[in-house]
Amino acid sequence: ILQNLKSNASSKLVITSAAFQDHIMRSLLHPDFSLSDPLRRHSRGKHPQQEEREYVLDPAPPPLTLAQKLGLVASPRERLTEDEWTRVKERSVQQEESAQPCAICREEFQLQPQVLLSCSHVFHRACLQAFERFSGRKRCPLCRREPYETRVISDAARLFQHRCATRIQAYWRGYMARKWYRTIKKTICPKDKRLRRQFFESRLQELNDSFVRYCHTDTEAFLSDIDRSLSSSRRVFQQLERKSVSEPQENDWDRIKSQVIQRGVWDCPICLTALSNLSLPTVSARSNHQQRRPTVLLSCSHLFHQLCLEAFEAFSADSRPLCPLCRSAYHKKPI
Known about the structure:
Layout: H1 2-27, E1 55-56, H2 66-70, H3 82-94, E2 114-117, E3 122-124, H4 125-135, E4 150-153, H5 155-187, H6 193-214, H7 219-244, H8 250-263, H9 281-286, E5 295-298, E6 303-305, H10 306-315, E7 332-334
Antiparallel strand pairs: 1-4, 2-3, 2-4, 5-6, 5-7
């Protein structure tokens, strides 16, 4: 019996030693193990799916060693199922992890690769890999949970694309609204008085600009021709007016005198001094104390001192001067 017990104990010891040796060989001396980077990611080819497709970034766990099967060494945790990953992602969405900057570099995710940890925290993929190389272990930078699983997601990229599309649409709507307003502003007259005046001024300016633009002559010469035409027309009308003026008769002079008396103006418009003449009673009544000066009556019913009118005619450039007040041709009569 003792020999059997000794043989069973020795065989159990041999099996345990073999199990530990197998565990050490397969875990600590793994072919992919590197002393310079103990957490170096296992080599894996490019993921066959698109970048927007979510997938677990961690490699598949190796098969259990003999020591793990015998319970001598703790077995690794089972990988999260799709349902568990769904719950983790829902918790991350509720916390708005993808809408906030990366906790490591404090920059927006935008379109850069993004990873979701099993603790529901989100980081840049490159930032998390740099953090793992720096720390030498897989520990969440926020909650310090270890170990964790990583899953590539694209929530932040979709949010960034949505913001960009919203901004582009807002800019486009603003451009169309401004274009529509400029069209309405050019075609519909406003109700405000000041704006209405500006509207008609701008339309008139546009018409003038278009006229000048399509006019194939020199603008200065064109305006000079207009000035010369106006001067010639003015001279012609003045000559016709002078020819049409006939000398008043005695009855006409009496009527003109009555108009002067009704107007009641007894000052010379040129020298601004009082008029005096015995032919007009009202004038002589005012001017008995003054020195009498010759007065002339024009056919346009205006009174002047004779000397003042002669001086005005001497300084006039026209061959036949016009009345200093009404600018019309006249005949004069001393009174």
